Amino acid sequence: MDITAQHRLFGGTLTFAKHDSAATRTPMALSVFLPEGEGPFPVLIWLSGLTCTASNFTEKAGAYKRAAELGLIIVAPDTSPRGADLQGHTVANDEAYDLGQGAGFYVNATQSPWAAHFQMESYIVTDLLQLIGAEWPADLSRVGISGHSMGGHGALTLAMNYSHLFKSVSAFAPIASPVHCPWGQKAMEAYLGTSHDAWEKYDAALRLAKGKALPFDEILVDQGLADPFLETQLMPHLLEQAAKVAGQKLTLRRHEGYDHSYYFIASFIDDHLDFHAQRLKA
Amino acid sequence: MDITAQHRLFGGTLTFAKHDSAATRTPMALSVFLPEGEGPFPVLIWLSGLTCTASNFTEKAGAYKRAAELGLIIVAPDTSPRGADLQGHTVANDEAYDLGQGAGFYVNATQSPWAAHFQMESYIVTDLLQLIGAEWPADLSRVGISGHSMGGHGALTLAMNYSHLFKSVSAFAPIASPVHCPWGQKAMEAYLGTSHDAWEKYDAALRLAKGKALPFDEILVDQGLADPFLETQLMPHLLEQAAKVAGQKLTLRRHEGYDHSYYFIASFIDDHLDFHAQRLKA
Question: Given CB atoms, is B9 within the 8 Å cutoff of chain A?
Fold first, then answer.
């Protein structure tokens, strides 16, 4: 692991680092907030949205004051593999904000050219968690996951598919059902091919509608009603319907006037940190 | 005034805007946080440091949660004039991070080519305050001022030179004595010429050492001890010595391990908001 920057804040330490991922076969960037004290600490994984790097949440969410008070490690990984290794795929990677670099969608790609590096699902649940366990005083039996937009989709689906790894899950303005929206359809087709059978695993609303019993006593989702992507891309009502079908408690809070930005996230992040801490520290 | 973006946050509203300044003879950019409720609200002016725009504090300081609780308007102006009007001075403006665009130093330039537009002192105390009074439910009899680095210098010197306008003043890692450091010397010579008589007005430590009675019951300054600019550029001990000479109460808090970044600011911004609110709401 290479530490690229380190800052003291709220009595703790924020580290920006890079490490080699076996899953993506590239270096991967991340930030880690470590609170003051001895540990081991519970961990919250934060998955960011389209176009984001490890810096967006880190700089803009205003999460670390409460995290310091609660004694939570917060890990914010990058949203895709990046860098010189991907030069062979430059055009495919960079032609759009919603595909390729900055848009990994937290899936394991099976299609060319993406399959070579875009293995974000394995990266998060394997390489990233291993790194955190090895390099920080983290208690990997107490890990929660949250995220925003594409990262909200990632948090929900990874929590559902790896419920043994995650004790708590929440999301801000998640892409609730990728198979039903343009962002999701484009990414799923490029990364997974045209068969919808392969997509289902990565669709939170579909997974939930299956009625599979989940270990989560509650899922917390916040959504701004002035979010320009609400109707066309995010569709939280599909998650709400599926939760009803599945008998899964979902607290979906709709906020008048709030948009899709980090100002919305900052306004409610403390509620999410409290929600996770309550479950991770129980 | 042109509103360029608006976001709901913490029950209030954040507005990014541009307006024409008579002082700089350019459009000037700013952000304004307005808390929920009727007002009129007291106002905190935040002056940013070298290279910053109106966005840095706005995105990174994590100040608005407490500002919403306290009922404080926070105004973050840009650090210099910018834009097409300055094309004639492009080389001079953009050849360095510490001179020209992004580096107004909150002075009224008297030297060519800067005098034509770089009138940041007049901009802050005249055009900016007028705009806030006209467009927001602000109580201009209750205005505080704070800032970081170059903006800490700006906050201290403007508060001292316009003590009838500002009821409270604080700073993070201010350039305490521009005449004694390379950043300050370069800027003062470029903007004000070689006569040191013209510089003194813009040097907080020198102003304070004059022993002129100030109306401030206390000045709050935070400084990180891992700040790479501490010894060479910031020199808060000169402010401390001057405060002693002047009999001005200065609370200078030195923080082990903290650097010059917005992570340092975020860690202590709530203390500054409380400090100002206590004085502005008294």
Answer: yes
Taking the CA of residue B276 and the nearest CA in chain A, the distance in Å comes to: 20
β pairing state of B250-255 and B73-77:
unpaired
Q: Rounded to 5 degrees, what are φ and ψ at A111?
A: -105, 150
> Do residues A96 and A72 make contact, with C-beta atoms less than 8 angstroms apart?
no
Record the pTM.
Answer: 0.95
pLDDT in tens, A148-190: 999 999 999 999 999 999 999 999 999 999 999 999 999 999 9
Q: List the beta strands (DSSP E) in chain A.
A: 2-9, 12-21, 26-34, 41-47, 73-77, 138-147, 168-172, 219-224, 250-255
Distance CA B214, CA A37 (A): 42
State the Cα torsion A127-A131-A137-A142 to the nearest 10°.
-10
Q: Is the pLDDT of residue B161 over 50?
A: yes
B80, with CB counted inside 10 A (0-12, 13-18, 19+), is: buried
Displacement of CA B141 from its chain's centroid (Å): 18
Strand partners, A12: A9
Compute the average pLDDT of residues A18-44: 97
State yes or no: is B227 an active-site residue: yes
Among B49, B43, B58, which Cα is nearest to B9's?
Answer: B58
C-alpha distances in Å from residue B96, one per residue of A102, A174, B29, B90, B102: 31, 42, 21, 11, 9
Q: Strand A41-47 relative to strand A73-77: parallel, antiparallel, unpaired?
A: parallel
Q: What is the mean pLDDT of chain B?
A: 94
User: ipTM of this model?
Assistant: 0.93
Spell out the residues 6+ positions from residue A233 whose beta carbon is closer than 8 angstroms to its own: A175, A181, A182, A183, A184
Tell me if chain A has a CB within 8 Å of the CB of B264: yes
**pLDDT tens readout for residues B77-97:** 999 998 755 645 554 555 688
Residue B23: CA count within 13 A, CB half-sphere = 24
Peptide bond into B174 cis (omega under 30): no
The Cα–Cα gap between B275 and A3 comes to 36
> Least CB-CB distance to A60: which of B60, B224, B257?
B60
Nearest CA in chain B to A257: B8
**Distance in angstroms (rounded) separating the CA atoms of residues B144 and B151:** 14
CA distance A70 to A66: 6
Task: Quote the tokens at residue A66.
Answer: 């409460």
User: Counting beta carbons within 10 angstroms of the beta carbon of residue A81, is it exposed (0 to 12), middle (13 to 18) or buried (19 or more)?
Assistant: buried
CA pair distance B230, B149, nearest whole angstrom: 10
Between the CA of residue B239 and those of A152, B26, B144, B198, B255, what are the distances in Å? 48, 34, 19, 19, 17
| Mean pLDDT (whole number) for A204-226 | 91
